[in-house]
Amino acid sequence: MSLALHGPAAAEIIACKQESASIVSLTLRLSDRALADRFEFQPGQFNMLYLYGAGEIPVSISSDPSSPDPLVHTIRDVGRISHGLVRLRPGDRIGLRGPFGRGWPVEDACRRDVIVITGGLGCAPVIPVIDYVIQRRRDYGRLIIMQGVKHSDDLIWRARYDAWAEQPDTQVLLAADVGDRQWNGTVGPVTGLFKQAQLRTGNSMAFLCGPEPMIRACVQQLLEKGLPPDRIWISMERNMQCALGQCGHCQFGARFVCRDGPVFCYADIRHLFGRKGF
Amino acid sequence: MAGAKTRVAVHKFSSCDGCQLAFLNMGEALLTLFEQVELVHFAEAGPLNPGTVVDISFVEGSLSTAADLQRIRAIRANSDFLVTLGACATAGGLQALRNIADKGDWVASVYATPETISLLENVTPISAQVKVDLEIHGCPVNSRQVTATLRSLLAGITPLDERDKLCLECKRRQHVCVMVTQGMPCMGPVTRTGCGALCPGIGRDCYACYGAAENINMSSLGRHFSTLQLNPAQISHRFVSFNSADPAFTPEPAADTARDD
Amino acid sequence: MEAPRSASRFLPRKAFDTLLSALRDGGYDCAAPVVRDGAVVYTRLQAHDLLPSGISIQQAPGHYRVEFTDSPRNFSWANGPQALKPFVFTASEPLWSVRRDPDGELRFTEADTSQDPVAIIGVRSCDLAALALQDRHFLGGDCVDPHYQARRASLFLVAVNCSHPSDTCFCVSTGDGPTASDGYDLLLDELDDGFVIQAGSSAGQNLLERLPLASPTGKQLQDITRQNLHAAECQARRLPPGNLEPALFANLDHPHWQTVAERCLSCGNCTSVCPTCFCYRELDRGSLDPDRSEHVREWDSCFTQGHSYIHGVTIRAGTDLRYRQWLTHKLGSWHSQYGRSGCVGCGRCISWCPVGIDLTEEVAMIVGGAS
User: Fold this and answer.
1) N or C: less crowded end of chain A, CB within 10 Å?
2) Interface contact B152-A54, CB threshold 8 A
3) Residue numbers of the domain that contains C131
4) Which CATH class is domain A4-100?
């Protein structure tokens, strides 16, 4: 249930962490404590963050759904509003509406292997899935985490990946198109990780988020390895103004990404996925 | 820096001064502005300090003479952020029409002693000579645009780039289309929004003083104008006026707007 | 389906003002079609203002001309550039405002949605159908739009069956006209000497009962039946029948999209005059007072670059993709979203396209089925 639908609720930035040259994580707390107490979200949902005087953008929630106060949003400096958001400091206020959208079907993945494939900041919306699985490790099969970045400097949350790699029956695979001298992951695209991935596609569910060309290439690999289309889930991004399924910008064919997504089952969108212009 | 006001300068090159009026026409809002900025140079309004270092320079006018080049380079060097103000500064303005005419004839017809004028080969927008951080389009620009720009810049936010076609604003205001109802050769479908659809609002056709919108189709509009009984020269004059140095209004050889078919 | 005629009355033309007076007595402002700047547009009537008569409209692709005849009729024309959309989904409106306190806290205030009641005179069946579609979009989901809802609730709709469709009209082929079947409070059929009037809602019935009117004669009822049949028969334009969603999405690579793009100005006039197009964008507007800002929405269009822009990528950069988005949505994915096409056959996108692109022709080129 979204708490602030039509007008934002005020939130205070309580911490800012520079994750990489262009990525910042904002930790924020809703000023209305009663609202904060009622705020809950599903892994993969997003909030609309309002930069004072400028406007709103959708940002996925990258913190743990089991502790929704404070909230963490990880933002890349790519546009007019994100540019302002990443420059905020503790004590600054923003507006927040949300949470919106349908998240990852983590419960449907119960007793299956979970394959998480992300590129760039596409890792942020899937972090809550990994947290969720790790907290319920015995309810899930093998956890395979594959993350690709353009440059090894772009990899954020290295410590988290290292910690996840220590978990039982968990494989963490990292790839960078360009790696520096310390890089001990694979050099090349994330699809290059499939050779090492201990996939068992017979009883797996895959969660993907990242640049669409990368997603397309990875989905192709998963399909070729026998994962059925209805067990591939993708988080999509489109222009969003309202997050209410009304402003029309995020339409992907007949679907409103903000309301019917952002997480979609590949089987439901494959007729348009990768089509130029949608 | 707490308490420090943003230092602003308004400079002028070849132009009519009309865009600077967008500041002066702000009225009471100027009082609010002066709480936040220190206007260190603005010849039309009083303060003279052309060589000083500022945070933001607004530059009106296009570059026509050798002296202009020296001056704009100095302004650029003294400005943290440089904003061009209006059609002359962003797209050459009317005076750039001499680029497609015989400039000797033009100068001789205007000045009594043309030999004293040291003209550049072509009139250029500011961005042809120095880096421009932001362009405000229009002939002239209006107070709403200047207010929105200042508001954003003072808050450290990139101002919105208004690139849509004028038609959208015209329809939002429920103006009746002068092309569809009266056959006027309206430039709205290729013209950048921002003016508030002033001309269609008083029953006349847009003449593109705000320059080119994004993704324009000059060929189609030009062909349509020919069905409205405009001849090829008249059609090309619709595009080549206030913004003749705007590359978006310069037809590709393959896409001749004046094609008469 | 024809509405039942049993409760109809006859309103003589010279008594039309009694209807307007009754509406005003009921607390409604009256908005009625008048000619302004060469088109029929809705204007708030002042007391004792008369409805214009003798208006005749010629419409063709990219062409709209008003002429005046000596006909006594007030509604012998098809439509103007506006539908009901501007009354319910306003072209530009504030959503909320925000104040920044000295301690930095942001105080948000949602915009007032209260509306004064307004009666709209002369609504056509295509526009009622479009209103029903916008209702489904803005009111039908989990999230009700409070601004639309307030405006919608303030309307009293006096419809008129369309007796003079334009050459651009094709509501018969979409099943949305020329006669209204529901969605109105009062419905008029216009004859030379007056109107057959009937109610379509309890509010309409209450108002009608306050007017001292006689029943129509059998001849008058025959005349309107004949008139309505003629209005339907005179429409030559049509959309290909049925749900075009599968055919449109099977033809995403059709070369005709590019052919249309060579003519299309990507100006968004079609989407602005379309009575069902619902896209809007949101932005902040502020004065130079740094401690206040206002967040507004305004009509947007899938023909703009900003519509599909997302951090550095424009998904629909070219006009071919923008036109395809519009048509595949309007005539295609509307079926999946709202159970029917998003086109009600009003023909506005044809008349008000500056270069006269006709969607009935374009869609027929793409899916076949040209008439």
Assistant:
1) N
2) yes
3) 9-233
4) mainly beta
Amino acid identity for residue C232 in this structure: A
Answer yes or no: is pLDDT of C11 > 60. Answer: yes
**Among A57, A62, A115, CA closest to A233:** A115
Q: What Å distances lie between residue C121 and A103, C28, C51, C158, C207, CA to CA?
A: 47, 11, 10, 5, 14
Number of Cα atoms under 13 Å in the Cβ half of residue C44: 8
From C75, C87, C88, C173, select the one nearest C124 (Cα to Cα). Answer: C75
Cis amide linkage into residue B189, ω under 30° from 0: no
Q: Are residues C33 and C54 in the same domain?
A: yes
Q: Is C29 inside a domain boundary?
A: yes
Core vs surface per residue A154-181: b (16+ CB within 10 A) or e: bbbbeeebeebeeeeebbbbbbbeebee
CB count, 10 Å around CB of C43? 14
Question: Which CATH architecture describes the domain B6-154?
Answer: 3-Layer(aba) Sandwich (3.40)
Q: Do B176 and C37 touch (CB under 8 A)?
A: yes
- What residue in A sits closest to C146 (Cα-Cα)? A6
Q: C96 and A8 in contact (C-beta within 8 Å)?
A: yes
B31 part of contact set with chain C, CB < 8 Å: no
Under an 8 A CB cutoff, do A87 and B155 touch? no
CA distance C43 to C31: 5
Encoding tokens for residue C23?
Answer: 């509406």
Q: Do C299 and B176 touch (CB under 8 A)?
A: no
**3-state secondary structure (DSSP) of residue B56:** strand
Sign of CA dihedral C128, C133, C138, C140: positive
Q: What are the chain B neighbours of A84 within 8 Å (beta carbons)?
A: 155-157
* DSSP helix/strand/coil, A235: strand
pLDDT, tens digit, for every residue of A80-120?
999 999 999 999 999 999 999 999 999 999 999 999 999 99
- Domain final residue, candidates C233, C266, C299: C233
> Using the beta-carbon criterion (under 8 Å), do C267 and B168 form an inter-chain contact?
yes
Q: Where are the domains of chain B?
A: 6-154, 166-255
pLDDT along chain B (261 residues), means of 10: 82 96 94 96 93 97 95 98 97 90 84 87 95 97 97 94 97 98 98 97 97 96 96 92 85 44 35
Contact C297 A241 (CB under 8 A): yes
Handedness of CA B116, B122, B126, B129 (dihedral sign): negative
C288, C304, C351: residue with CB nearest B147: C288
Q: What is the pLDDT of residues B93-151, one digit of tens each?
A: 998 988 888 888 888 888 889 888 888 999 999 999 999 999 999 999 999 999 999 99
Structure tokens at C176: 């949305």
Residue A150 host element (H or E): strand A143-151
Asked if C172 and C32 sit in the same domain, the reply is yes
Query: A277 to chain C: which residues are within 8 Å by CB?
Result: 252, 315-316, 321, 324-325
Map tokens 């899930």 to a residue. Answer: A140
- This complex has an ipTM of 0.95
End-to-end CA, chain B: 62
CA pair distance B186, B165, nearest whole angstrom? 12
DSSP H stretches of helix in chain B: 21-24, 29-34, 66-78, 87-91, 103-110, 143-154, 166-172, 178-182, 198-201, 218-227, 232-239
CA C30/CA C121 separation, integer angstroms: 7
Instruction: Assign 3-class secondary structure to C24-83.
Output: HHCCCEEEEEEEECCEEEEEECCCCCCCCCCEEEEEECCEEEEEECCCCCCCCCCCCCCC
User: Does a structural domain hold residue C69?
Assistant: yes
User: pLDDT tens-digit profile of B148-158?
Assistant: 999 999 999 99
Per-residue pLDDT tens for C105-115? 999 999 999 99
A113-269 to CATH, choices 3.40.50.80, 3.20.20.20, 3.30.420.10, 3.40.50.300 = 3.40.50.80
Number of separate domains in chain C: 2
